[in-house]
Input
Amino acid sequence: MRKKLFFLVALLLFSPPVFPKDADIQKPVVAGSFYPAESVLLSGQIMNYLNAAKPDPVNGEIIAIISPHAGYIYSGPVAAYGYKEISGRRYDTVVIIGISHQHIFDGVAYLEKDFYRTPLGDVPIDLEFTRKLARAEKDTLCKNPQAYEDEHSAEVEIPFLQMSLKDFKIVVLLMGRQDYATSIKLARGLVKVIKGEGRKVLIVASTDLSHYYKYDDAVAKDRVTVSELLNFDAERFAEAAAAGECELCGPGPVTTALIAGKDLGADKVQILKYANSGDTAGDKSRVVGYASAVIYKSKEEGTMLDPGQKKELLNIARKTVESYVKNAKVPEFKVTNPGLLGQEGAFVTLNENGRLRGCIGNIIGTQPLWMTVRDMAVESSTKDPRFEPVRPDELKDIKIEISVLSQPKRVQDINEIKVGTHGVIVKRGFYGGVYLPQVATENGWSREQFLTSLCAEKSGLPADAWKDKKTELYTFTAQVFGE
Output
């Protein structure tokens, strides 16, 4: 009976409304292939994905989301995390930034039509916003109807929006060549129009991650991309993508969202879900990676390092690792920046070609932050018991990541733990261990998987020790940044 009622409601909600006969409508090109062409089947499929998604709450104002764009059976379960997170929030306009898979062109194509049709109905296009943006960046934006004739990257986001938001319009953009300069110009135009409009605007950056690697290789490659996203450094992200260190098909939309997000007040990136087609569709021999993430303005209080302070700490870590590995000497530094003199905990992580090469840190700061980073650079490069010491010939392939930690806080309920935001310390008797926040994200773990691995693999405890009331759990946050 409930299923019959659902189908009846779905038919009433998603029957295409009647618009003027002369309305200019963009018709869908992948309905029936990437997702069902029937409204009831489509709404039911998306609803199932949304119901299954359990993202950790985002404590702040979501300015942009990063969402995959493959066929729904592959990427839908991951995309649902971002759309579940924005459900119930109010946005007047949603700017969807896709890419052109079929056509190569300079600049960004904009869609100047009245409505975009999907099986769930016709969504109004915000022509006023679109035209203002085109005027603001007239050398970058262009009319290119051909780019939309066979392109799915923006289209597949729209049904999810229809199931998650009410009373909104869309702006639909497709990037041609995805160079950093184009991302800067597009972001600049978006920020100008958004600030001038005085309306609530959401940016959707459409992208998949690595393509067609074996499962384990894909996870390793995507771990690097996710780590760079968490750094929230658009220029560095664009450089890593251009150099092939990060692999994704939509670096332009993501870079644009990072730039615009920061200019609009965002200060954090949170990964809601990572998986690949091997997880969702089953075939692990040749997979595509997907991530759902949000760029948001945090409501959490706390001191954040500025770009100059981050750069100085990375320089200290880099020089220390190179000097100690080559000469067994710790270099001298003269540090006067007040933000680096406080006693804060920190970890230094070394990655070599996308794989962990060393990671050691102090949870509680007992000396100035820069000294902790210096000392942990030595420890992670030469004294991590899981690895042989780093050799001089490896230094060129080592990338350094630093995590600056907040003070740990005891938790009584595991639901207080936000995957991707909180690191966790577990203690029971003489046993204990710690995982940084990014460990769960990089492995695509749920909260339970995160805690189980922490107990079994890091703490010498039974895998389910986290369920025991005698086990102490502490959370902390980390500001993560890297080279």
Summary: Residues 1-19 have pLDDT under 50 and may be disordered. The longest strand covers residues 287-298. The chain has 14 helices and 19 strands.
